Amino acid sequence: MANETKTRRRLLYRPPLRFRSSGAGGMTMTTTFIGLGQAALIVIVFMLPFPGWFKYLVWPGLMLLLFVPLVASYQGRSLWEVAIGAIGRTRQVAAGEQSYRAGPFTGIPHGTPLPGLAVSSRVFDVHPTDGSESFALIQLRTKRLYTVVLRCWPQGREWNDEARKDLWVSRLGDTLAFVAQSPDVVAFVPVVETVPESGQRASAMVRARLDGDAPQVCKQAIVEAVEEVPTAEVRLESRVAITLAADTAFRKRDPDEMALDVSRRLRRILDYLEMSGVVCRPMLSTELTAMVRRAFSPGDELDIERGLMTGEPMDLEWENAGPVSGSDQHAMYVHDGAKSISWTLELPPEAAFDSRILSDLLTARAEIPRKRITFIYQPYTPAEATSIVNKDDADTRQAMRSHVGRLPERALVRREQAEAARAEQARGAGMTKVSLVITATSPAGGDIAKMEAQITNLTLAASLKVVAAKDQQGPAFLAGLGIGIIPAEMSSTSDKLAA
Question: Is the pLDDT confidence value at 420 over 90?
C-alpha cells in the first residue's frame, strides 16, 4: 500500500457565550420588570385627579426619560452606565483627582506611592514553614483582596504539534475549573508583556559563569560575542496573578492567616499550570516592586534590570513604586515622560477560532516595544455555573416560545450555544467571565497615532473588538498590571443597569 499522509483536523473552539437574562422584546429581565412597573404607575396616575397636562405629557415623558437609557446602549454599556460614569468623571476632574504629583512642595512630599485604586495596597514576603518556596503577597486593604503573582515561561512558541497545543488549552481549562472550586478566588489574571531588550541579562549571566582561570582571550571573545553581536530588540515576559478575597473573620483581621492558606494551595496550582505548558515560580516583593516601577517610569528600566540581575540594592520599596507625576487624561495616561493608551474588550470573537488566534497580538514587535496584554478570568464556582447555564437555557427556551412570527437567526444560534454550554458544564467544564485589557506605552514624543493604528490592526487580526478606555485610562492602566486591581470588583454602577 502506498505511503499514506495522515493529516489531523485543526481543532476549533466555540466562541464564548454572553449570558443574558432575556425579557420581553429582547430586553433584559430587569429592564422588562422596570418597564412593567412604570406602565403600572402611568395607569395609576391616569386614575388620580391630576391636571391633564401632567397626566398625558409630563408623567409619561418622565417615565420614558428614565426607561430609554436602560434600553439604549453605547459600546456595550447602557446609557445609564455611560451617564453615571460621566458624572463621576466630572466630579473627579472638578476635584483635581485626575492629576498626580509627588515630591517636595506637593501634596505627596515623601515617596511616590501607587496612585488611584492601588493607593491602599501593600506587599510583603511570605516564607512558609513547610520549606516550600517563598512568595510575595499583595494586599489591597480597601477591598480585602490578596494577590499572589507567578513569573511564567510559556511553552507555546516552540515546535509543538497541534495535538499538544490543544492538550495545553484543555489543561488550562482544567486549571481554571480547579481554582473555581474555591469560592474565595476572585480572578485569574495572565499578563503577557513586551519590553525593550537591553542585553544586560545575557551579559550578566555570561559574566557570572566565566571561569576565573580561563585564558583572558577566551573570556574576552565570549563577552564580545554576547555584548557586541546584535540581539533581539524586544523580549517577552509573562506572569499570572491570582487574586483571592478574605472571606472569613480570621483572614480579614490577620493577613498571616491568608498567607498560610495561599501557601497550602500554591503548589497544586503550580502543578496544574505546568500541565498546561506554563512553567511558573512565585515572584518576591523585590521583583513585583521593580515590575510596577518599570511600568510607571520606563526611564528607570536599565537601572532596575541591572539591579535585578546583579543583586545590587536598588533602594526601591513598594511605597515608592508609583510615578513621580501622572495625568489621567480623556484618551491616554501620561506618566513620567511616557504616554500609555489602554483598550478594553467590547466583543469577543463571534466565530469559531483555533489556538493560534492571538499569536500576532502577543508576539514581541520592535515597532511596539512596550505592550501589555492582560486577560482577566473570573471563574464561577461549580454551583454558580450550574445555576447560570440552567437559567440561560430556560431563558432561550422562553425567548423562542414567546416570539411571534419567524424566529431570527441570532435566536437560533443563541439557543444552540446555550445547549452546548449546558452539555459542557455537565461534563465537568468550568465557567468563566472573561475580559481583556491591552496597554501600549510610547515615549512622550512618540507617534501615538501610529501606535493606535498598529494595535487596531492586531486586534482585528485576532477577531477582537476593543474600545479605548475613554476617561478611564488610569484605572485601566492599573488593571493591566496584574496586581489585584479587578475592574468588576470596583465598579461604581450596579449590574442591574447593564445593557
Answer: no
